[in-house]
User: Fold this.
Amino acid sequence: MMPREFFAAGGVANVPYIVGTNTEEGALRHLLAIPVQTEQEFRDALERAFGADDTTELAALYPISEFPTPNDALIRVTTDWRYACAVQDFAERIADAGLPVYAYNFDYPWAEPALRDLLGKSHGAELNYVFGSFIDGMVDVESRALSDLVQRYWTRFANSGDPNGDTDPSWPLFDPTLGNRLNLNANPSVVESFRQERCNWWKGYYTSLFE
Assistant:
């Protein structure tokens, strides 16, 4: 049974949830691929993955003019498709089931300097911060402070089901009408309408896969 079917049947755990993704999750998936360098190469990559009809819509939804390079546009497509918007859909299903859910976007690069330059804010970047697993002498004050904050959030959540406490920035419950997430970086803040237009498109795409 697929997760969406569990939610539809009311068969999910009656517990609070934390869900989230990193700003450029998809960068890791493209690490060993030849970067696309032109708009045509970008469109060709989309067509290989999604077919001609969806390529036209996706190219309009992710215009390469909004990104540093065509490859960055492709990374964002992958990020939203496989991670960010899938988790957004998941968060909405949790909230619609009447369960508390806290959503985040981890907006900070890998802690190790070599990986920071290579992978940026990709899949896995948050793990050092969640577990405080830094290499001695290779973490700066800002990164350590973010790790301490993340660990406080996670520890309180594990203890009580609510990550909030002390004087840390408030982390509101996810509200599907707001599309809100806590953006975790050196200056955490709540963002709303998180990638709303693009995630709305992907929600339709996900639904089409089950038709």
